UniProtKB/TrEMBL annotation:
S-adenosyl-L-methionine binds at Y368, K377, Y378, E432, D459, M460. It comes from Tilletiopsis washingtonensis. GO terms for molecular function: protein-arginine N-methyltransferase activity. This is PRMT5-domain-containing protein. Residues 343-508 form the PRMT5 arginine-N-methyltransferase domain. The keyword Transferase applies. The record marks F371 as: Critical for specifying symmetric addition of methyl groups. Residues 511-720 form the PRMT5 oligomerisation domain.
Length: 820
C-alpha cells in the first residue's frame, strides 16, 4: 500500500473540490482561456487568477485575440512550460497523476464538453509521454442536470483508451485510467447539509454552516457511485485499463452498496482528512463502516491517497498530520489473519482453471501431490469409514473395502487408520487405472500396508466383477467429486463401481448435491474474454468472437476473491440465496432401477441427465457475470463434505476444491428487486458430458407499481409478461413460483380503465380492466386454455415483467465437455 500526499500541489486550496490536494498534472490554468461560448459555466472551477484572466479575455477589446487563441489551441493543443508542474521523467517514478479538476466531460453545455475532451486527450497524452502509468480523471458530476451527459463522459474516456483510425490512443496501450468517484452523491450530501443547517437556525449563513460540517457523521441513502461506475465501464466495453478511484469524501451509502466495491477494480482510494471522526482523545479515527470498507479494499493493495492532512479539521486536535497515516497503517496491520485456504492458494485468487478430464487424462504426480495436502478432506473420509465399520457387528468377520480410484494411496491409508480406530479387521482392494500411480501403490503395499491391501490395475467402469458375491465389497470408497459434485463424471464412474458392492453394501460418498448462486465479478468477466482473445491456438481456429464464445462457454474452477454475491434469501417465493440443483445417490445395483447389460453396466447414460430451474431474489442492483457453483456430499452417517459458501454448512479449511464458475458471455444487468431465473442442464451423448446454462431477468410487479388502489372483483390467474411476447401462465405447484402474486394494477371506480380492444394480438383481453370480459380470445398460439366468462372485469394478476436474458450457453457441448 502506498499512502501519499501531493507535495508540489499542496499550495492549492482544494483541487477537485472534493476535499484534498494531490499531485496535479497541470496547474489548472486552462480555466483562464475562454474555450467555448459558454465558458462562464466553468469559471467556478478555476483559481482566482485564472478567473480574472478569463474575465479580461471576455472584454470586447480582447475578444478577437481570445477566440483566435482558443481556436489555435483546439487545432493543436500544447502545453507551455508554466502550465505544467511535471516535466522530467525522473519526477514521475511511482507517481499517480491527477488531471485538471475543471474538466467537465459531462457538462450540459456541448461547447464545454468538446473543449474538456480536447484538454483530456492533451493531458493524457502528456502523461503518456512522461511514462506515468496511472492517471486519475476528475469525477463526473452528481448534479441531476449532468446525468443525461454521462455517456459523453464515457465516450471521451473510451477514446483515450482505444485508437481510432490513423490516430493512436492518447493513453497508449499500457496506461491505467481511474475515474475518481465519491462514494455517494456529493450533490445529495450538500443538499442534506443545507437542510440540516437551515433546521438548526444557526447564526451563521446556511452555505457556510453546511460546508463546515463533516460528512463523516452523515449517511447517504443513494447508490449514485456504483450506478455511475457501472454505466461508465459498460460504455467503455469493460476495458481492463479502466478502474475506479474511490473517494471517501462523501457520506457512506448503505452497507449493501458498499459491499459491491471489493468486487470492482478499485485502482486507488482517496481518503480526505474530513472523512475521519475524532476519538475521545482527539485523534482521527474512521467509523466502523469506513474501517470495514477500507480493510476489504486493502486486500487488493490499492494505493491510498491521504489528502487535507496539513489543514486538519478542528476536531482532530492530537497527533496530526502523522496520525492519519499511522491510523491507515494500523488498519493494515490489524487485518484478520489469512485462512488456511488463503495461505494454501496464495496467488490463485480469481485465476481461471479448466476442470480436470479424469477419464481421458492420467493425472500427473504434482496434481496428486496438491490434492494430498488437504488434511480436512481425508479426516472426513476416515471418519465416514470409521462410522461405517463401527456400525458392522464385531462378529461380522473381515470387512472388504474397495478403494476405487486409489491414486497414490491416501484413501487407503485412511481406511486402515479407520479400521484400527473401530477395532475391525479389513481387507482393502486398491483399484487404479493410472499405470504411473500404480507404481506408487505397489511401493506403499510393500513398505507400509503389507498383505492387508491388494493392488489392482483397472478401470472401475470395465473391471471384472467377482463372480462370487462373497468376494465383493462391503464398502466402496471413492474420491471422484469435482467442484460441482458431478462435473468430473463421478456418476458415470460410480455406475461401474457399484457393481462391486454386495446387495447390502455401502458407498462412500452416499450422495452429493450441486448448488448455484448468481455472481458478479468484472475481473472474472475480463479474464474469461481475455482467455479467448489470447488463445494460442492461432487464427485457424476461428475469429476472435468464436474464440471468446468458446472461452465464455467453459466452466472454470476459481478461488473467488473479487466477487459479489447478488442473491439474498427472500422475495415472493422466499427463495434461498444459494439453491440446490439436483442430487446423485449411489448404492448397490440391486437397489437401483437402471437397466443394465450382462456385465452390470447401464445400457445408456440417459439416467445421469439432469436439469433444474431456479428463481433468485436480487435485492440490490448489480451485474450478473455468471453463476457460482458449489457442492455438498453426504459421505456416511453424520459426516458431510461441503464447499457451500455458508460457513455454517461448509467444511472449514478444506483445500481440495475451489468453487466452479459458469460465465455469461454478455453481462446481465439486474435492477433492485429483480428476479433472476436460472436454467441448468447436465447433458450427455454417450461419449461426453457437458453443461448448458441460461438466465432470464424479471422485475416483480411489486417493484414496479404503487400499492393497489382497491380490491379487484375477481381473481385472475398469475401471469408472467414479457415485453414483445405473449403472457405465459405460471405452472401451479412449481417449487419456484408463487400463487399469491402482487397485482400490478387494480381497477377502481375512481381510476380510468385500461382500454383494450377485443382480441388484441399478443395480449388477451379477458380479465383486463375495461376489456371485453364476456368474449373469449381466439387461439393465437398463446398456449392459454379457455376460461369461463366473468361478470366483472378484474385486473390481470401480473407476477413480473421480463427485462433481459442471456443466450443459451454451450448448446450441444460445442465449447466445453468432459470426455467419457
Amino acid at each position: 500500500m502506498a499512502a501519499a500526499e501531493g507535495a508540489q500541489a499542496a499550495h492549492l486550496a482544494n483541487p477537485g473540490a472534493m476535499g484534498g490536494s494531490w499531485e496535479l498534472l497541470s496547474r489548472g490554468a486552462g480555466g483562464g482561456m475562454a474555450r467555448s461560448s459558454s465558458r462562464p459555466l466553468a469559471l467556478a472551477h478555476a483559481t482566482g487568477a485564472a478567473a480574472s484572466a478569463a474575465a479580461a479575455a471576455a472584454s470586447p477589446h480582447n475578444a478577437d485575440a481570445t477566440q483566435r487563441e482558443a481556436e489555435e489551441w483546439r487545432r493543436a493543443p500544447a502545453f507551455r512550460r508554466g502550465e505544467v508542474n511535471i516535466s522530467k521523467l525522473e519526477e514521475t517514478d511511482g507517481l499517480i497523476a491527477v488531471l485538471s479538476p475543471w474538466l467537465e466531460l459531462d457538462s450540459p453545455d456541448e461547447g464545454v464538453r468538446i473543449d474538456s475532451e480536447i484538454a483530456l486527450r492533451q493531458e493524457v497524452a502528456y502523461a503518456s509521454y512522461l511514462g506515468i502509468a496511472h492517471v486519475v480523471l476528475p469525477a463526473p458530476s452528481s448534479e441531476p442536470s449532468h446525468a443525461p451527459f454521462l455517456a459523453s463522459y464515457a465516450r471521451a474516456v473510451s477514446a483515450c483508451l482505444s485508437s481510432g483510425g490513423a490516430e493512436g490512443a492518447p493513453a497508449g496501450s499500457w496506461m491505467q485510467l481511474s475515474v475518481r468517484l465519491p462514494v455517494s452523491s456529493t450533490y445529495a450530501a450538500q443538499q442534506q447539509l443545507v437542510r440540516q443547517a437551515r433546521a438548526s437556525a444557526s447564526s451563521v449563513s446556511v452555505e457556510s454552516s453546511a460546508s463546515e460540517r463533516s460528512s463523516a457523521n452523515l449517511r447517504a441513502d443513494n447508490d449514485w457511485a456504483w450506478t455511475t461506475w457501472e454505466r461508465l465501464r459498460h460504455l467503455c466495453a469493460y476495458s481492463p485499463r479502466l478502474s475506479v478511484a474511490l473517494d471517501l469524501c462523501a457520506p457512506l451509502p448503505p452497507a449493501a452498496a458498499l459491499a459491491r466495491w471489493p468486487a470492482e477494480p478499485v485502482g486507488a482510494v482517496f481518503l480526505p482528512a474530513r472523512a475521519f471522526l475524532a476519538n475521545a482523545k482527539g485523534f482521527p479515527v474512521l467509523s466502523k463502516a469506513s474501517q470495514a470498507l477500507l480493510r476489504a479494499l486493502l486486500r487488493r493493495r490499492p494505493p491510498v491517497v491521504l489528502s487535507g492532512v496539513h489543514e486538519p479539521p478542528a476536531r482532530h486536535s492530537r497527533g496530526v498530520p502523522a496520525a492519519y497515516l499511522q491510523y491507515v497503517r494500523h488498519l493494515e496491520r490489524s487485518a484478520p489473519p489469512e485462512s488456511a485456504v488463503d495461505v494454501f492458494a496464495r496467488g490463485y485468487g480469481d485465476w481461471l482453471q479448466a476442470p480436470l478430464q479424469p477419464l481421458m487424462d492420467n493425472l500427473e504426480g504434482t496434481t496428486y501431490d496438491v490434492f494430498e495436502r488437504d488434511p480436512v478432506k481425508y479426516q472426513l473420509y476416515e471418519e465416514a469409514v470409521f462410522q461405517a465399520l463401527s456400525d458392522r457387528p464385531a462378529t461380522a468377520g473381515t470387512a472388504s473395502v474397495w478403494v476405487c480410484g486409489a491414486g497414490r494411496g491416501p484413501l487407503v491409508s485412511r481406511v486402515l487408520a479407520a479400521a484400527t480406530r473401530a477395532r475391525r479387521n479389513v481387507r482393502v482392494v486398491a483399484l487404479e487405472k493410472n499405470a504411473n500411480a500404480l507404481v506408487s501403490l505397489q511401493d506403499k503395499s510393500v513398505t507400509e500396508w503389507g498383505e492387508r491391501v491388494e493392488v489392482r490395475f483397472g478401470d472401475m467402469r470395465s473391471a471384472a466383477v467377482p463372480p462370487d458375491v462373497r468376494d465383493r465389497a462391503d464398502i466402496v470408497v471413492s474420491e471422484l467429486l469435482g467442484s460441482f459434485g458431478d462435473n468430473e463424471l463421478s456418476p458415470e464412474c460410480l455406475d461401474g463401481a457399484m457393481r462391486f458392492l454386495k446387495p447390502n453394501g455401502i458407498s462412500i460418498p452416499a450422495s452429493y448435491t450441486p448448488f448455484l448462486s448468481p455472481l458478479s465479478s468484472a475481473k472474472l468477466h475480463h479474464e474469461v474474454l481475455s482467455t479467448g482473445a489470447n488463445s494460442s491456438a492461432g487464427p485457424s481456429v476461428g475469429s476472435l468472437v468464436d474464440r471468446q464464445t468458446k472461452s465464455a462457454e467453459t466452466p472454470y474452477v476459481v478461488l473467488f476473491q473479487a466477487v459479489a454475491h447478488l442473491a439474498a434469501s427472500g422475495g415472493r417465493g422466499n427463495w434461498e440465496a444459494v439453491q440446490h440443483t439436483w442430487t446423485f445417490e449411489h448404492g448397490p445395483v440391486e437397489n437401483t432401477p437402471t437397466v443394465r447389460d450382462a456385465s452390470g453396466l447401464p445400457i445408456t447414460n440417459l439416467h445421469n441427465i439432469r436439469s433444474s430451474t431456479h428463481t433468485f431474489h436480487i435485492p440490490h442492483a448489480g451485474v450478473c457475470h455468471g453463476l457460482a457453483g458449489y457442492f455438498e456430499a453426504h459421505l456416511y452417517g453424520d459426516v458431510h463434505c461441503s464447499i457451500h459458501p455458508d460457513p455454517a454448512r461448509g467444511s472449514p479449511d478444506m483445500l481440495s476444491w475451489f468453487p466452479i464458475f459458469f460465465p455469461f458471455r454478455d453481462p446481465l444487468y439486474l435492477p433492485a428487486q429483480a428476479e433472476l431465473d436460472v436454467h441448468m442442464w447436465r447433458c450427455t451423448s454417450g461419449r461426453k458430458v457437458w453443461y448448458e446454462w441460461a438466465a432470464e431477468a424479471y422485475l416483480s410487479a411489486a417493484a414496479l407499481a404503487p400499492p393497489p388502489l382497491g380490491a379487484s372483483g375477481s381473481t385472475a390467474s398469475a401471469h408472467t409478461v414479457s415485453a414483445g411476447a405473449q403472457p405465459q401462465r405460471a405452472a401451479s405447484g412449481t417449487s419456484h413460483m408463487s400463487e399469491g402474486a402482487e397485482s400490478l394494477a387494480s381497477a377502481t371506480s375512481s381510476a380510468p380503465p385500461f382500454q383494450n380492444a377485443p382480441h388484441t394480438p399478443m395480449l388477451p383481453s379477458v380479465g383486463l380492466p375495461g376489456g371485453a370480459a364476456a368474449s373469449e380470445p381466439p387461439s393465437l398460439g398463446m398456449g392459454q386454455p379457455p376460461r369461463a366468462a366473468s361478470t366483472n372485469a378484474g385486473a390481470v394478476q401480473l407476477q413480473r415483467i421480463k427485462i433481459a436474458q442471456t443466450a443459451l450457453m454451450n448448446p450441444g457441448g460445442r465449447s466445453s465437455w468432459v470426455g467419457m
